[in-house]
Amino acid sequence: MKWRSRDILKRPDWGMVRSLYKSMGYSDYDLDRPLIGIANSWNRIVPGHYNLQLVSEYVKQGIYQAGGTPVEFGVIAACDGIAEGHDGMHYILPTRDLIANDIELMIHAHRLDAVVLLGSCDKIVPGMLMAAARLDLASIMIVGGPMEGGCEFDNRSSDVTSLAEGLGMLKAGSIDEQTHRKLEDCAGPTCGSCSFLGTANTMCCVAEALGLMFPGSATIPATHAERLRIAQVSGRRIVEMLHEGITSKKILNRKSIENAIRVSTAIGGSTNVALHLPAIAYEADCEISMDLFEELCRSTPYIAKMNPAAAPNVPDFHFAGGIPAVMKEILPLLNGDALTVSGKTVAENVSRAQNVNSRIIRTMEEPWSKEGGLAVLRGNLAPNTAITKPAAISPDMQTFTGNAICFDSEESANEAVSNGRVREGQVVVIRYEGPKGGPGMREMFRAMKMIYGRGLALKTALITDGRFSGTNNGCFVGHISPEAAEGGPLAVVNDGDVITIDIPKRRLHLEVSEQEIKDRLSKWNRPEPKFKKGYLALYARLAESADKGAIIRHKFE
After folding, report:
1. What is the SS3 assignment for 113?
2. pLDDT bracket for residue 483 (50, 70, 90)
3. Backbone torsions φ then ψ of 229, nearest 5 degrees
4. 469 to each of 308, 444, 538, how far by Cα in Å?
5. Are 203 and 126 in contact (CB under 8 A)?
6. What would the pLDDT profile of 17-32 be if each residue is shown by its tens digit?
7. Which residues are catalytic?
8. At 365, is the secondary structure helix, strand, or coil?
9. Angle 430-125-555 from CA coordinates, rounded to 5°
10. Is 483 helix (H, G, I), strand (E, B) or coil?
11. Cβ distance 432 to 148 under 8 Å?
């Protein structure tokens, strides 16, 4: 079989390239084997990536064992948790496209033959999946795994976001500062992606559902030896995939995208999948609409419940059977013939899967809910759609009507919640936080957590053209499109306006006449860009609406 790397490693014409490799210690033996790229996002900033240096060593072992030569390079990775609640969050979603571009450029510039993707967390995994689809080479994904749950707090195992809930409790006087400080030391007991089903672990599960990871590998805890064994197996398998001609687009296609949507809603995954799966589908040349997303969510039962919707964490879900158990349960709804990196189909992969804990994973006949954990809303406030997560919302709060209290930034909303200005019965409106207006579509994580901490989670609602963390709960609607910065109706909501959220009817409505909305919009002035130079200024000009996945289009026909 002809490998891409052979084109630039033949003697005598490409002796200079061989010499460059040899200057780093590579031998003739190494250079006569296929070169397998390892795109490694290891760093010592992001807990979910802290163990990837060790994971990479086992990947290299597997590649060597199967007759390949590993060629490792670094990829950026930013931490949503550290970036939450300040200007840093503007930069998080835009890293997704940079990661995809970075991997594409490194692989093509050096004519590598295949790629192993090492990442975890919110935008890194989707960025890597986008790159895999774009490259269409033999590709396999390995994630760092979830961290263990922390000490008990508020009657459940804590996680790092418990600190934000605790801050609301501290401000409300229901806990003291010493309790909050103790929580800081025990909420994150190990490295790994945060222990709840936030966007990080959701996207790791999505990568498995797409077929780009070995079955069962998404949720192996970060500190467990099985994580290293699966890394070695994956290293061997990438070489086999190269020889078998299994490229990413044979796996990432319409069938696997549909499977991933169904799995993500069956486990009550993060609302951010509504951004990332359309972006991955775009790269895989099988664009999807929010109508398809809603159709699949409506027709898929919600069968696996974990934090933030319930007490069990992702490691608990793993030991209950994990993604293979979920996929086996909903197999009649899936494209069972979809190919995976194992060389087997989805149906073959999950044939022996077992659900060993019905308190976490239920059956299709007795689900937590007959409809999936995610929902697409429309209405005069969201003409192009909005996204919410019924799985994290109390049934009593799935219809809510209240008076708007409006904020033009996350910071102003956070200050108001912290100072007690948000009261029972209000709908908090946070706007100018979309892909263009933010820019970068920040998460309204801190506001939601402080609302919870102040005891208002079941008494208020929050809507935004920004995003949410997968750990948020309460009554919330995000991804409102068109966003305020593009002249969407959200821009002209006034304090005191009545807003109705009706999730069962998939409706988000401003109780104002259409003519009044038109009159207000005719007087609306587009705000000045928040960033006038640098990558965020470029991103604000290029990024598409949230209902399109906030993608940056790069295909020209």
Report:
1. coil
2. very high
3. -65, -40
4. 10, 7, 25
5. yes
6. 999 999 999 999 999 9
7. 469
8. coil
9. 85
10. coil
11. no
Residue 404, classed as helix, strand or coil, is: strand
* Per-chain mean pLDDT for the chain: 95
Q: How many CA atoms lie within 13 A of 481 on its CB side?
A: 22
Would you state the structure tokens that stand for residue 278, as one six-digit string?
């359309």
Strands 138-143 and 114-119: parallel
Cβ atoms of residues 284 and 247 within 8 Å = no
Are 397 and 503 within 8 A, CB to CB?
no
CA–CA distances in Å: residue 212 to residues 25, 98, 252, 296, 371: 31, 21, 8, 21, 26
User: Nearest CA to 379 among 519, 461, 465, 489?
Assistant: 489
pLDDT value at residue 79: 94
How many residues in total does the chain contain? Answer: 557
Nearest Cα to Cα of residue 153 among 198, 193, 192, 196: 196
Within 10 angstroms of residue 365's Cβ, the number of other Cβ atoms is 8
Residue bearing tokens 């007490």? 311
Domains and CATH numbers, the chain: 33-154+163-177+187-350 (3.40.50.2300), 375-548 (3.50.30.80)
Phi, psi of 215 (to 5 degrees): -60, 135
Tokens of 260: 């991933």
Q: What residues contact 299, with CB distance under 8 A and at least 6 apart?
A: 333, 371, 372
Tokens 């587009």 — which residue?
A: 526
What tokens does 22 get? 């040899």
Q: Which residue has the tokens 């689900």?
A: 367
From CA 356, how far away is CA 347, in angstroms rounded?
A: 19
**pLDDT tens digits for range 147-196:** 999 999 988 899 998 888 888 888 888 999 999 999 999 999 999 999 99
d(CA 193, CA 501): 32
Report the distance separating Cα 193 and Cα 27, nearest Å.
Answer: 37
